[in-house]
Structure formats: C-alpha cells, structure tokens
Amino acid sequence: MSGSSAVSGAAPCRFAHYFAICGIDTETGLEPDELAGENFEESPLKRTFKSKVLAHYPENVEWNPFDQDAVNMLCMPKGLSFRTQADQRHPQFHSFIITKEDGSRTYGFVHTFYEQVTSPQICSAMQTLYQMHNAEHASANPPSSSSSSSSSMDSLASSLDEADSPTSSSSTSSSRAAGTYDSSRDTLYVSKALCLITPMPFMHACRHFLSQLHRAVTAASAPPLPLESYVHNILYEVPLPAPGRSLKFHGVYEPIVCQRPGPGELPLADFPLAEAFGLLGVENLVQVFTCTLLEMQILLYSQDYQRLMTVAEGITTLLFPFQWQHVYVPILPASLLHFLDAPVPYLMGLQSKEGTDRSKLELPQEANLCFVDIDNHYIELPEDFPQFPNKPEFIQELREVLLSFGITDNTGAPPRTRSSPSSTPSTPGRERKTTAFRQLEDDGRNGNLAGEELAVLELLQGNATLERLQALTKRTGVTVARVEALRAGVKAQDTEGQGGRTAAEEEELRKAKLNIQLREVFAGRFTTMFADYEAFVIQSAPDLDSWLTNREQMHNFDKASFLSDQPEPYLPFLSHFIETQMFATFIDNKIMSQWEEKEPLLRVFDTRIDKARLYNVRAPSLRSSSYQRCSVLKECAQAMEQRLIKIDHTAIHPHLLDMKIGQGKYEQGFFPKLQADVLNTGPTNNKWSHRTATAQRRKDRHRQQTEHLTLDNDLKEKYMQEARSLGKNLRQPKLSDLSPAVIAQTNWKFVEGLLKECRMKTKRMLVEKMGREAVELGHGEANITGLEENTLIASLCDLLERIWSHGLQVKQGKSALWSHLLHYQAREEKLEQQHAESPVSNVPERRKSDCSIAMPFLRVSLIQDMRHIQSMSEIKTDVGRARAWIRLSLEKKLLSQHLKQLLSRQALTKKLYKRYAFLRCEEEKEQFLYHLLSLNAVDYFCFTSVFTTIVIPYRVVIIPIKKLSNAMTTSNPWVCVSGELGDAGIMQIPKNVLEMTFDCQNLGKLTTVQLGHDNAGLLAKWLVDCVMVRNEITGHTYRFPCGRWLGKGVDDGSLERVLIGELVLPSGEEDSGRGCRTPPLQRSPSQTRRISITSLSGRGSSQYPSPFTCCSETAHRGSLTILLCGENSLVAALEQFFHHGFKSARLFQKTVFIWDFVERAVAYMESADQMGDLQETAEPLGMTCQSLCHYVNAINSTPRNIGKDGKFQLLVCLGARDRLLPQWLPLLVECPVILRMFEETALLRDRTTVNALIGVLETLHDFPITLEASLVKGIDL
C-alpha cells in the first residue's frame, strides 16, 4: 500500500510546505522588542526580546513564498521569553493562520519549548540587565516584594506560574523565587519554536509530529534516525490526503493518521469545537456566531494563543456555506495593535496580559464591537442586536449533542479568577486534594478545559508529559487515580500494532465525531432558512464579462420578495444578514456558477438543499417558523469513522538521507542545527524533480519579486527604527509613536474602502425609497419596507461610527461620533457664553409684521438637535444617543449639513484625529458629505417611527380666510390632532388665539386634524383656510387644507370638520403657511364636464390599490387616510362622479348636497320596504338595501356635528372598509329619486359608466382597509 507515491513531491499536493525554527540569534544577542509593548518596569526575565527565524526549509516554494516577518511574528507573537531552572518550562502548542491578499490561507503549527542558553555573551547581558534593574529599584522595591508581581507580559506564561512559585521557592533561595538571575548559580533558558506550515489545517497531525520531534531531542537516547530524515519525510514524501481519503505517515516514534472529507461533505476543520463551546458556553457562542454573521467587529481576548485560534476557527467553520470576508487575524501580534483601529468589520484575537483587567483595555471603537473574554467566558454584545432565529430551540439541540458525548454545557470551564474557590463539579474516578491538578489541566499548553476526557488525552500525548505530570504529583502530594494505568496504556500503545485503536486514537475519533455533529446542526439551520434562496437570485447578465463589468449596478437578489416569504420572527435577523458582504459574495458565487465551476462550499450546500427538497417534496414546513432538528447526525460521522478504521494510503517511511556524517550530533535537550543542503531539495528519484524551463523562468520572475519585497522590508525596518528611537524616553511607548508612514498604506486602503461603502449605502438607501425605480428592481414590496429601511439606516449608523473612530488620537466613551459632538457642543456653548457677555444688543429675530399669521421660523441648529437627544431619558448610552442624533438629522434632511458644520471646526478635528484619519482626508471627506447630501432627495421618518414613546412639543397655527370671514369668532373653538401612533385628545383653543403649542407623546406621522366649535355667540361662523401643525423636534410641518365654513346655516352646516394632512416641503420662511393652494369652496363643477371614464377607472384601479398592499395595522393607516379622503382621493373622485349632472343650485332655494340625494334614496327604500314593494326582490338585494339604510341612519344619528359633505365622506369610507360600495351603487342608480335630482346626461344615469365604476370599486376588495379613529369616532353600527 505504501509504495512510492507519485505525487509526493508536487507541492500543491504536499502535506507541509515549510519547516521553520524560531528562537534567539546568538549573533545579534539580546534585542529588546519595544514594539511588543515593552514595560521597563518589568524584571528583565519578564521582558520581551526580539526573536528571529533561525532556519526554514526549503528556501522557497514557488506557489507559497515564505513570509519571514509573518512567520516570526506569529510563531512568537510576543518575542522570546526567558526562564531559569526555578520556573515552569512546559512546552506549549499553538497554531496560527496567514491570510494572503487573494483571501487564500496558510496554516502554521508551533511547538514552543525552552532550551538552555549556552552563549556566555547572552548570559552576561542578562546579568547586566539585572544589575541595572536592581540598582534602579533597590530603594523603591525591596527584592522580596516583586515576587507577587503577576503582570507577566510573557506570551507563554503558563497559568501555573503563580501557583507553582511557592513550591519552587521552598527548594531554592527566596531571591531566586523572586525571579532574579545570577549567572554564577542560575541556569538560563530561552524559548525556541518548531513550526510546520501547511496548506490545510491538519492540526492534530501536526501537533503529534512536532511533539514527537521535541521528544526525540529531550529523550535520554538518540532517535532511531537523524532528525533531518523526519523533517525531509514530512516536507517531501508525505502527500496531502486526497478528498474523501485517509493517510498514515510516521513520526519519530509513532504513526500519525489524518483524513480529509470527501467532495460532498463539510470542508475540513480540525480545531476542537467542543473546546470552543466549553470555553464560552453554548449560549454565548451562539451570540458571538450571530455577531459574526452580521459582520460586526469581533475581538477575542485570552492569555492563551491556542484558545484564540480554537474559538476563531471554530466560529468561522460554523459559517458554512458562507465565508468571513473581512480582516481575519486570530492572533494579533503586539506590533500590529494598530489594526484594532481598522474601521471595517474584523475578527481578531488579542492576547491578554496575565492579571490585567478588561477595563484597562483601551479599544479605538466599541459602538459595533462584540468583545469575547474567553478565559472568563464572558461576552459584551453591541446594542440593537437581533437574535438568531429559533435561538432557544437551537441552543437546546446543541446542548443535547454535547450531552450525548458526555459534555454538559459550561461544566469544566476554568475558574473565573485565580482566587475563586474550586467549585467545579467533581469528576468520577479522580480525587482532588488541591487545585494544582486542575490548574495543570488548564495550564495553557492546550488552552483546554478541565474535564476528565481532556486530561486523559493530555496524559497520553507523549511520555514526556507523563514524566512531568508524575514529578508534579510527587512534589505536591496529589493522589491522581489511574496515572499508572494510563502510563501502562502508553507503553502498550508503542508496542501494539495496527490491531486495535489506542485510547488516544479513540479520544481523537470521539472529538472528530462531535465536531462533525455540531457543525451539521449549524449547517442544517442554514439549509432550512435558505431552502428557497435560488428562487430569488436575479440572473440578469448574458455572460460573465458583462456581469463583472456591471457588478456594482446590478441587483443580484430580490431581497424584498425573499423577506416577504419568511416567517415573521426571522425578519429582524434576516433583514440584517442579507445586507452583509458574506451573503453578497455567496449570491455572486451562485450567479458565476452558471459560467464557471461551482465554488466548493456552494456545491455542497446546493446538494443539501436538493436532498432536503427530495425528502420534503417542498412541504410547507420549510417555510414555517417551527424548528426543524438536524436529521443526519448519526450518518454524518460514519464516513469519517470508516476512513479512520481503514487507512487508504500510507506514506513512505522516514529513511536515512545521503548526508555528511557527524554533523548535527545528538545532544540531549538541544535542537540540532539541521543540514540545509539535504532539506532544501526534494527527492531526486521522482518526476517532479526535473524542472521544466518554464518553471525556471517563473522562479526567476519570482526572485525579482522577492528582491522588490526585501526593498520594502528595508524601508519598513527604517521606520521601525525611527519608531523605536521615539519610544526610548517613554517607559511604555504608545502606539501613536509609530511613524505614520508605517501605517499609511493600510490606512489609505481603509479610507478608500469607507468612501466606497458610503457611496454604495447611500445609493442603496435612495433606490430603496424611490418608488417606481425600486419596484422595477424588485424592491417594491411595501409590506416590509419599514423593516428593510430600518436595517439600512442602522447600517448607515454603524458606518458613521466606524468613520468617526478611524484614526482617533484618544478614545473617550464608546461612541466616537457622540464624543466629537460633545467636544463641539462644549466649544460652541463657551463661545455662546462669551458672546452673551459682550454688550451687543440682541435684536429680536422676528422680521415680519406680527399681525400676519404664519408658522414662526424654526432655527436650524446642530446644538439644539443634540439637546433634544440629551433630554430623552429613554436613551441610556452614548452609542444610542449618536444613533438617535443621526436618525433625527436624517429625518430633518440636515445630516450632511450638520456633519459639515461639525467638521468645519478644523482645530477640533486636528486635536481629536491623527493625520491619516478619514476625517482629515479633505477630498474624501467632501465626497462623503456629498453622498450623504443625496439622501435629502427622499423623506425619512426614521426618528419619529423609532422613538415612539418620547414626549414631543407640537405647534398649531389656524389660518382663517380674512376677506370673507371674521378672523376671530365668539364661539369656543377646539382642535384634536391625530397621527399614526394615536391622537392628542380634544384641546380647547383659547378665544381669539390662532396659535398654540402643546406637549404630547409622539403621534408619529400626522394624518388628520379635527377642528370644530360650539356655535356660541353672535359671530359663530368661521371660514378657515387651513391648519398648520409642526413637530418642534423634527421640524416636520403638516398642512391640513380646509377652505370651508364651520357654522350652522352656512355651507353644509358643519360645526366640525376632519381635515386630512399633507407634509409641507421645507421652503422659505415667508410662504410656509400659504405655499399650497386652497381647494375650491364648493367641489361641484361649474359646468357639465364629461369625465372620461378611463381616467376615473385609471384613478380607481392603479392609483388606489397599490398602496393598499401596505396595510400593516398602523404603519400605513395615515397614507390610507390620504388615499381615501385627501385631495385627489377616492371620496373626491366619487364626489366628482356624483356631482356630474347633479341639479344642486336651485333658484331661491338652499344648495342641495349629494348627501341630500342619498338621504332621499334611503327614505324611498324604507317606505317601499314598509309597503312591501321590496318583498319580491332577491334576498341579497334586500340585505344590501337594509345595510345601506342602517349605515346612513347610523351616520345621521351620530352626536358629532359633521356637515353633509362630511357625512358622505364617512359613508364612502365605511363602505370601502366593509366592501359594500359596489353593492350600494346599483341601489342608488335604480332609485326613482335619481330622475328628479340628476340631468339625463349625468354619469350616474349612464349604465356602462356605472358598471365600469363598480368594476373599479370591486378591486378594493383585495385589500384590508383600516380606518383611522378620527374618521369613525361616534359611529355606532
């Protein structure tokens, strides 16, 4: 089976690309690493020093160039660390990831151990540093007190450091326990890292290989072959397992097995998910997962690198079929901390220093941050955070999967703090006398949980571990059950052939099965939620080229229709999620798959959806919000288990190489210098060794490239030197000391990215709002626009927060934007105060003659808007205040203007922001404000509709028509203002006052005003032009046209009218009250006009029904009222229809109204009914007759003093609501009264026209109509 594998040398098929060794360079000696956040207060042993890549093999791989800086930084993210014989020196393992420009990833696996320092120069340098340190601190800190120092900056500080120091001090002198170093009696050790760089994340295999390699160095006898043989074997002779196959290769002592999922399975993920769930708890992990899906900024925080990696890889693995599209740095080296300033979504891991508190961590931006403290299993979530659909059932299912593997949620997690009592549940088969054993399990080598199964694995990882464990148990006096048995098991493992699996293999298989089952539960959720996604993909381009060129202009996914198809509870999450980059990329991949090969994740996902359809036959259950559990848990792990039981391929065994004898002689405890000549070239006997000329040319081209890169590196080094010299005089150099040039390039990309994002977002918001165009692009389904609009505005708020937090000098508060506004407010108020003290006479603002009645001018003021927000007790946080302010400014169409004003104070901007910040790039800032200005083209109510419980001051101005009436009246007038969210109640207007203000809970968009009086006194008649109402916070002014009399015996005798509002476009101060035309006093046309029935039916069928689709109970009631009763409304159209040919004005008689005709018709029907004339008519007709009479009588008997036109309006509204209009119309037409009251040419007497109108009115039956309370008040049906 082993044979010689043909493809073993081909690098894309090679298991590992590089083997590297990092450590101390004895040539350059000790170089302090200031960029790693050095603290000179620390004792020299605890400081960080620069590490180097000492060697890497091969020299270079063509398709994956070796990145020396990145490997060095990530192998030793905090540089070198030193120890003496008094300290713990356990080897540790961690992994890392390098993401390239094109998004491809390379994985690194690192085994770090301590090696004795043999160089006398380095020992004496350390001694000198100590003498200097002690001299400085002799007076301030007596040596003994430093033993309690726990703020170790060291990356690899094991969590046992403190626990173990008392024990070690018993055997050594007290000065030694204090972490001092004396070269005459102490042995100095320094960290060294062995690293494998691989194209795929075979974590367990690499971990085993590296630990065996280290064991070979520390073992008492030399390994069977020189170390070069094993390194050469894994670099050149071990292939990647083929998809769906398993592979066995040989380490120094034991065989190592790995397997790769097949093409139809979930992709490879080798990081233990159980550990991620154990560290955070199921609920927390689901919350962090949701933040990741919504592309927030996620910062992981832990002392242990492997924990950072496990959680980061765990979460991104669970995103299948989607992929994280943004900055991904699971281990952020100390020298790259400025990455946290990135104004883009990111997923980063930050190593916490031992003993430091979360509150001391200064982060540039927290408005949109999900902070994950892994070691204390606690998370901080952003505000306004939608929950994952079916979250409780989802969490329950995950808990059950974990339980089936014997893991209970949150048990075995490490204690919260060092000092907390050991309250972890006791585990069977193990007694504990002290916490030392628990801490050993949790000692950061693994970043693993305390828990029996993990302890067993740890014990079995290699004999060296057992050696250490045994020594520790003897020293601390802990009795650990079954250690001997386990040791025996390990021995057996060495001798046991391939017959049965060892305990360690069993454990590994169990973990792999659990991994797959947990991932299946997540994948199952997406399969259910997006089962229908394909139906909403818009395939509009004829070929790939045209699609790529127009990519940004095209709409690829019908979001509105997709959302309207989803269960209600899913909408808050889904409406946000379908706006993310990862979803957009997923849909792009889907569209591109018609021209090129399907992206692997998409292929697997589509196959699953097809399978689900096959079983469900598109059952309605797919669309319901009831939770569907994953049904393939048992089968999913079988394929993998089969592969591990029956190994498909065995690689060539390590063998002696053709190399010089005597070099790299075995010396216990020291990793030898390997022979580069044998490791830099692959085996010569396979076909890959004969390179073709083209490959050689490629290599030359690549060499030129690397020369170019080293040039860049020299430049970078120069800037780094500059940065270091700056930091010398500071004990803790701040990151701002980095030369801006180092960060400039990255920041330039950020600035360009932010501007592009702003352009895309504003464009999307405009298209969303601009009716017709949006409908054509598939965005016109109105029943979810509120939700979609809210999502877009929330993402605009996030974008503004990210822009304002880019390049901050000093962070203050969680919202960078609000902090800037507060600075501005403080300055302006100070100036205002100085201005007030200066003896300039204050001229009153009002320039107009006070006798004219109009809405007083509302001053535009950024500060005033801030004060409105500050006075809202409902908002508790700075982030909330900033968002409310953005919403208010957007609603007032002042967002761009306010931000321009804020940024016009350049001295303030310079004080708050670094040179490279977005807000200090003049050209980009101008473009950004211009994009925001474009939002003024549409009307937003994003403040009014969100803050529904706040109290808002309103101003009412009543404008009478003076020429024809008394400006004042002797009666007692009253007014009632109504909006979408309620009404203000009836308010008496003080006599002879035409302007008043009142405070009331937010009414939403204003819809109607009821205006009336009690008809008292001599001058009781009142002719009102219109009523103006203004929301004093948002500045929205509504005009309610009237143009009619209120009074008995005048017009239609109405004492109260319901006026329908329209939003006034902000115009000049002068005509704010009179900018709109007043409707004619009487709506009857002066001459007989034949209204073309097409225009009427056009008005009926196309103009009304489309907005009736939006009848969610309250949100669109206002727009419905306008469609029913406003100008050009249904009532107005029917009035015109009835007025046509109506004999209204009679000589020497009162004017006759349409209502008079209706009343007479009803009177006729009632009398006919009593005489029995209607008995013979069909039953339904009799019922309809009764309903019309019932409604008309109810309207006539209402206690309200509404006039005849008001009553007709009411009848039309009620008839439309109860779907009776088309049935009533024939009754009125058949009634003999029509002959007396209508000309022969009247439309109402034209059969075809009436039938057409009935057809139009019947189309309204498709829509539920909800009438506003102000319209139907006092009607008892």
TrEMBL record:
Keyword set includes Repeat: yes
Keywords annotated in UniProt: Guanine-nucleotide releasing factor, Membrane, Repeat
GO MF annotation list: guanyl-nucleotide exchange factor activity; small GTPase binding
Bias kind Polar residues: ranges: 682-695, 1081-1090
Source domain of life: Eukaryota
Pfam families, per database record: dDENN, DENN, PLAT, RUN, uDENN
Domain PLAT residue range list: 952-1060
InterPro entries membership: cDENN_dom, dDENN_dom, DEN5A/B, DENN_C, PLAT/LH2_dom, PLAT/LH2_dom_sf, PLAT_RAB6IP1, Run_dom
Family: Belongs to the RAB6IP1 family.
Native species: Stegastes partitus
Name used for this protein in its record: DENN domain-containing protein 5B
RUN domain residues: 787-948, 1121-1272
Region (Disordered), start-end ranges: 136-180, 409-433, 682-705, 1068-1090
Gene Ontology cellular component terms for the protein in this record: membrane
Domain UDENN, first and last residues per copy: 33-597
Residue ranges with Low complexity bias: 139-175, 414-428
Subcellular localization(s) per the UniProt record: Membrane
PANTHER family per UniProt: DENN DOMAIN-CONTAINING PROTEIN 5B, PINSTRIPE, ISOFORM A
CDD domains assigned: PLAT_RAB6IP1
